[in-house]
From TrEMBL:
It comes from freshwater metagenome. It is an enzyme of class 2 (transferase). Residues 3-178 form the Formyl transferase N-terminal domain. Pfam families: Formyl_trans_N (PF00551). Belongs to the GART family. Its EC number is 2.1.2.2. GO terms for cellular component: cytosol. The lineage of its organism: unclassified sequences, metagenomes, ecological metagenomes. This is phosphoribosylglycinamide formyltransferase 1.
Length: 194
């Protein structure tokens, strides 16, 4: 059974999908959830599931200190895989070089990287955007792409309505990628499905 640490900042619905994935055939256990805000719903979801939940606020720390704290906290669980699922921070330590780290992003990368991907897609007037899971590297949403799925932009879509439809896709996509990666001998090997 592979060990995961999940990083999450927000509502944690992607985390919940990883928690709720059917036990049959599941290849992982979640050792801990780490968030950057003590009030993140994601941490409450972890606690409700009996998973250690750690809040690492930046308050009082320099950027470098916080990055080191994050790395130390993650490494203390010796995970096989780190999953950034709605984590609104960029990992700037060498953590992603030591442990395979993947990120869920709500666009068809390389289009619309960054923290406003859904709003940027709407503003650009594209007819489709989507969901990507990729390896984390030193850039912002630039790592090797593992899986992608398109989502149509519908007339009248708002950022919220479009993001909700993307998140429906992201939940299945992330669980599927994590299950499949955890079945591999080499979690760095990647797996493209498109
Ligand atoms: C997802 O769209 C993810 O791609 C983005 O943040 C969102 C997380 O949603 N980085 P939730 O907090 O898991 O509901």
């Amino acid at each position: 059974m592979r060990k995961l640490v999940v990083l999450a900042s927000g509502s944690g619905s992607l985390l919940q999908a990883l928690i709720d994935a059917p036990a049959n055939g599941v290849t992982y256990q979640i050792s801990a959830v780490i968030g950057d805000s003590p009030t993140a719903t994601a941490l409450t979801r972890a606690q409700s599931a009996g998973i250690p939940a750690i809040a690492l606020p930046k308050t009082g720390l320099s950027a470098d200190q916080w990055q080191q704290e994050l790395k130390t906290a993650v490494m203390s669980f010796a995970p096989d895989l780190v999953v950034s699922a709605g984590f609104m921070r960029i990992i700037k330590s060498d953590l992603f070089k030591l442990i395979p780290t993947i990120n869920a992003h709500p666009s068809l990368l390389p289009n619309f990287p960054g923290s406003h991907a859904v709003a940027d897609a709407l503003a650009a007037g594209v007819s489709e955007t989507g969901a990507t899971v990729h390896y984390v590297d030193a850039g912002v949403d630039t790592g090797e792409i593992i899986a992608q799925q398109a989502v149509q932009v519908l007339p009248g879509d708002t950022e919220s309505s479009l993001h909700e439809r993307i998140k429906v896709v992201e939940r299945n996509q992330l669980v599927s990628v994590v299950v499949r990666l955890c079945q591999q001998d080499d979690l760095w090997a990647g797996l493209r499905d498109d």
